[in-house]
Each structure stands twice: as C-alpha cells, then as structure tokens.
Amino acid sequence: MENAVLITIGDEILSGNTVDTNSNFIATELKNIGIKVLQIFTISDEIETIKETLKSAFEIGDLVITTGGLGPTRDDKTKKALAEFFDDEIALDDVTFEHLKSYMEKRGRSEILERNKEQAFVPTKSTVFQNHYGTAPCMMMEQNGQLSFSLPGVPYEVKPLVKDQIIPYLKNKFALHYICTRIVSVVGIPESVLADIIEDWELALPENLALSYLPIGTRVKLRLTASGDDESVLKQQLEEEIQKLFPLVGEHIIATTEDKIEKILGELLTERKLTISTAESCTGGELAKMITSNSGSSKYFLGGIIPYATEKKVEILKVSQKTVDEFTVVSEQVAQEMAKGCQQLFDTRISLSTTGVAGPGKGEDGKEIGTVFYTIRVNDQDKTFKLYMPHLDRHDFMHFVSQKIIQDLVSILVNIQ
Amino acid sequence: MENAVLITIGDEILSGNTVDTNSNFIATELKNIGIKVLQIFTISDEIETIKETLKSAFEIGDLVITTGGLGPTRDDKTKKALAEFFDDEIALDDVTFEHLKSYMEKRGRSEILERNKEQAFVPTKSTVFQNHYGTAPCMMMEQNGQLSFSLPGVPYEVKPLVKDQIIPYLKNKFALHYICTRIVSVVGIPESVLADIIEDWELALPENLALSYLPIGTRVKLRLTASGDDESVLKQQLEEEIQKLFPLVGEHIIATTEDKIEKILGELLTERKLTISTAESCTGGELAKMITSNSGSSKYFLGGIIPYATEKKVEILKVSQKTVDEFTVVSEQVAQEMAKGCQQLFDTRISLSTTGVAGPGKGEDGKEIGTVFYTIRVNDQDKTFKLYMPHLDRHDFMHFVSQKIIQDLVSILVNIQ
C-alpha cells in the first residue's frame, strides 16, 4: 500500500463552481503516513464514467479514494457505480440507519425522510465508516488486495472522516515505510539564478532524496523529500543536506522547518516575544486574517484595524488630513502615518499598514489600479515599499500583497537577529 | 470545439503542497464561451505519464489545456513530452527569445542566463502566446482538428494568458454555442427536504436544462444550466423556471442572480444605501476580507476592527470590563457590546461582531473550542447567535463563521424588505 489514486466526482468542480480542496487535504494526510498520490482524476457524476475511472485508477495504484457524489439528491450516482464495479448490490445497513436516525434526532429532524433513509443503503460487501458531521457514510470496499474508500464531497465532512478514521485504519492495517519532507524558503533570488547556484548540490543529493521547486509569490520553496525505512535516518539526511545549502545561499534562506509564511512569522515573534498589529486599507482584513490563521497568534497579534473610509484613517489612526490632501490617500506618506497610528492604538512593537487600489473599480485620486504602498514599522524604525500588480484580480491582489508584507517582515526580522 | 480536458502537471499538487486553483479558473472561463470541461487529470511531472495522459485526454475531448511543468528548473518535463507526443522537435524561437530578453531587461536582469534561454525553445510546430508576467511561454499545438495549449503553472501567469489570449482566440476561431447558468441560493431548509419539495418541478424541467445541488455551509445553491443556440432564449427559459420556484420555496430564496454571498450582500447594501462595519475577534479579519473582496465594497463598508486582545475590546470598542468579568469574553453579552461599539466607532447603520474560540489551543476562561457568539446589529436592533463547530480546523472555522454571518444578515435584510 504505497501508492494511491484520488477520484473527485462532481460537476461543480468541472464547471469551475467549486475549488477542489479535498484532494489537497487527503494527499497531505496520505503523505504523512508514507502513501504517495500518483494521480487525481476529476470526473463528472455519471455511472459509466465513474466505473471506467475506478478501473483506470486501480491500474495505477492499490488504494483509491473517491470524494463526492454521495448526497441525498438526484445527481449523485457514486454508490450505484461502486456496487456495479464491485459486482455487488445495495441494501439497507441497520447500523448505518441507526446512526443516521440518531444523527438527525440530535439535530431536531427526527422525521426521517425517505430520501435520507436512502443514505443508509450501502453495497453489501462494504465496510462502513460512520459520518459524524453529515448524513452520507463513508464506504470501504476490498478486493484482491486493493482498497477503495468512498467519501461525501463536503470538506467539513471529509476532513474528520480522513483524519480520525481512514488514516488510523490504514496506519494500523499496513506496515508503511516513511516519507519525510522539509521545506526551505528562499527569498530575494529568482528561481533560475537559485537553480544555477545550487545545481552541484542538487546533483549530489543521495538517491532516496528528491528536490522540487515551488515558487510562491516572490519566494521559492525548495521541497526535499526523503523516503526509506528508518525515520530518524531520513530526518538526519535531510538536516545534513539543508546545512550544505547555507554556504551557498544562506543569506536568502528565511526558514528551513516551517512552510507557511504566517507560521514562520509566528515562530519568530513568539521566540523574540514581539507583538504586532495591522492597519489595512486595500487588503481589507486579509493581512490580519493571515496572521491570525496561525494557531497561537493571540500571543503576539494584539489587534488590527481596517479604516476603509479615508475619514476613518484620520479619525482613528490620526493620519493627518494635510498629508492626505497633499499626497493623496494612496501614498508612501499615508502608509507611514497609518503604521505609526496603528502602533500607538494597539501598543505593539511592530505594526504593518497598507493603502492601495485593489480594483477593478477606479481608485480615488486617479491612482492606478494595482498600486499599493505598505509600511513595516519595527520599534521606531519604518520602511515603506511600493508594489504595482495590475494583472492580479481583486482577491489575488489582497492575498499576494498580504503574503509579500509578511515575507518582507520575516526577512527584516531574520536580518536584525 | 465543445468539450475540453484539463491536465494539471506537478508533484506539488499530488503531494498536497499546493491547491490547484488553475483548473477552477480555466473551467469557469471555458464555460462562459460554451466549452464544457469533461475531465481533469492531475499527474506527476514525468514524460511518459504526460504523453499517456495527452492520449487519454484527446480521446475524451478535442481541446486539451495543460498547466504546470514549464519552469526553468530541472523538474519540468512538459515541453519534451509535448514535442514527443506531437512527433516534433524543440528549437529556439527568435520571437520568443526577443520577448524573453525584453521581459528580463525590464526587470533589471539583462544577463540572460542559459537556463532562461531554454525557455525560448519551443516545439517547431507550435504557435506561441507570449507570457507577459513570467518567463515560460504558452504553446499551442494543432493536429487533426484537435488543439492543445500548454501553460506554466503559476496562477498569476495563467490567468492573464487564459483571459486575454486563449479565450479570445477560441471565441474567434470557433462558432461556439451557448451555455447559460443561473444560481438560486436557498437558506433555512435542509437539502433533502428541499429536494422533496421541488421534485416535481425538477422532473418537469425542459430537456436542455440541468439542475445541480451545491450545498455550501448552511446554504444550498441550485445551479440551473441551459444549453442551446440562442442566448436570449436560454436566458428566458432560466428566468421562467426560476419564477416557478417561488410558489414552492420562495421564503427561503435569498438570491437568484448572484452566486457569492458577499456579492449578494453587496447588491442589497448598495441598493438600499446601507453602510456596514465589523468588529472581529475569533474570525481575525476574515469577515472584513470577505466583505471587501467584493468590488465596489468601499461604497458601503466603512471599516473594521480586530480587537484581538481583550483589553483592546474594552479600550477601543468600549465593551464594559464588568461585562467581561461577569460573562467572560466569549459571551452573548460581549458580542452585543462589541457590535454596539463598532457601530459607533465607524458610524454605520449595520455592524457585525464575533467573539469565540477558533482553537486548536484552549480558549480563555475555559470556553470550549469551536464556540462563537456573533451579533448582527441593524440600526438600534440587534440579534445574537451562537454556533458550536468543534470539528472545523482553524482556517475553516474562520471561513465558515464569516460566511454564516453574512448569510444570516442577508436573510434578515431580505425579510425586512
């Protein structure tokens, strides 16, 4: 049981209506127990397509996990396809029905509708994993040493099913070998230049280590994956290879353990007992959200403000009206004053501010769409940056800018060690 | 040219390291010009796998779009696979090289590295679409009436290539028939109950109309898709069928045109000239970010505050210390006072507040993880709700709660019409 294939079933993914986040979650969880996802099929809700894809999937890997197509409504056909593929029939499962009844009673919907009762019908050969956060159960089928799990499509239901039931089951049933991963974050150097500098190092990597480049914004993440039987040997191998990178590009490395920039920041701030606050205009809360999405952020994030209307920047953050009049609200000067006001309002060592035009509507004062000024203030020092990203849509703009600010702050903090 | 297949190439997707958002974007853009995505393959960066998948893809549809595997680094093999599959060779393309040079000069990297020069090598039979936001060009191959486009994997590069070049090209080259979609948002009614109520309506839908259920949080989105030759006929058909839903479930329908809840809110607020502000604790900026991610939100969103530390709730929002001491900071009473303080701070008609424990760390005052109180204040009326979502991880919790609040506000506004 080393290789898995995922099948995402649902027209809502193919039509672009929904982003498939389940595959990402499942792939990560499987990787942690040494199972590699070799391929993902995203297909429509049709019995023949589902059956054909199950066939293709089992030719690639011995473990197949499907998500989607198990709801109580008319467009869900996975269960039928599953029974036909495994030459089985669907019948009412008493345990599942009891679970469903008690699930619905707890939610004050004790009249079990016929349509919901259908959800307790499963292939007779299946092993059922009960769903504690929804009405569609997870069904496992086993045949000739191959395994399939069929899950509903709702991420809130998929996550606990995978984490609490499927992963422990697989871990327990198979003796799995280990995969260890480390990610090195490199900033301030283009991917191609980096690749040139570390080429010899890459070519000399041990055979059981693999390297990938993952550019994200202006950061390049180097992912090193090691596989083998002894976890502690793998960890040591990774550490040794990463140490060899420092003489080559050490000054550009901002992290070697954590992957997410908000976690990297969180570790730095916690370690150095620093506090932070944010004053956002064009990022609209995204920056604060990124910082607070790290668990434990209440230790260092004291607060944020989004003074969207210009007069709120003046009233709450004490930005001077004169500065606004003279330089416009999207300016280096306003960003600076916002950061200063923010630092005072929340009484923090560090403060971050943004002012810009996310678009697509025209900005005030004729500033071009995609322009943003941001200030990073640490103690009584500040530094203001300008970005111009006209090709990004509103959502990506807010996200890119927030990520860049956190990344720049991390670079600054790392260098004033 | 009615059907397309997408191929996402890259180990970073299969390993769970990156969420594939390109497929979603491309599928949406294709849908708008009447091209349906039939399947998405997500595969690893290996020449044989890429070639086999191109074969499978062209058996399903006449248009294949690949993303990923075109970077300047060692793990990118798409170009080779492409040339081999189309029985072609790779050679330096002068126009592409000139474009690359000027692209790099503009960014102050005029020494063209050998590795970057490689990016100007393309299959000789390909038509190149230049990339204005990165170094890897998009290559189109044409054979026996079938088309493939190969794009880089970075979303910031994919979006403009698709939107500004590929879509106009396809639109121009083929006489495409139309697909129209409308989404009806239904709240306050479980999916299975809804399905029962509208069953007869669904069965009576014209043959060229298809219905899908998309549950999202506590909302069910009904997606109606119509296909045919005359756009105005399709639009009328959709409108007629949607009108028939009102006698059945009218009081649960919150929108019939917009899809995203923040857009639905934006339209309501703009139409009624209402203003809004937010005071967030456990949602950490996500609520403000959702509201401001709607273009034009500066018309109604005046500002938000994230008083993360308890003393900031007291200082800035004038929550009484007595209330905090008596009921703890995660309480109905504090949520109410936060909303009131927020309304005053930003001088808005509507204010929203959240206080809760996102986890996974233990909450202050022993409140259980996953508990949140939120207040919706409209003029001098307020309503406070409690949610308990212990099974959600931190990120999903912040998102789910924010979405639910906006949804509840929309329901309230719709009903006080």
TrEMBL record, chains A, B:
Signal peptide (UniProt feature, chain positions): none
Residue stretches making up the MoaB/Mog domain: 5-173
InterPro entries reported for this sequence: CinA (IPR050101), CinA-like_C (IPR036653), CinA_C (IPR008136), CinA_KH (IPR041424), Competence-induced_CinA (IPR008135), MoaB/Mog-like_dom_sf (IPR036425), MoaB/Mog_dom (IPR001453)
Alphabetized Gene3D superfamilies for the sequence: CinA-like, MoaB/Mog-like domain
Pfam families named among the record's database cross-references: CinA, CinA_KH, MoCF_biosynth
PANTHER family in the record: NICOTINAMIDE-NUCLEOTIDE AMIDOHYDROLASE PNCC, NMN AMIDOHYDROLASE-LIKE PROTEIN YFAY
Family, per entry: Belongs to the CinA family.
NCBIfam families associated with the record: cinA_nterm, molyb_syn, PncC_domain
Family matches, as HAMAP family: CinA_B (MF_00226_B)
Protein name listed in UniProt: CinA-like protein
Organism whose genome encodes this protein: Chryseobacterium piperi
Lineage of origin: Bacteria, Pseudomonadati, Bacteroidota, Flavobacteriia, Flavobacteriales
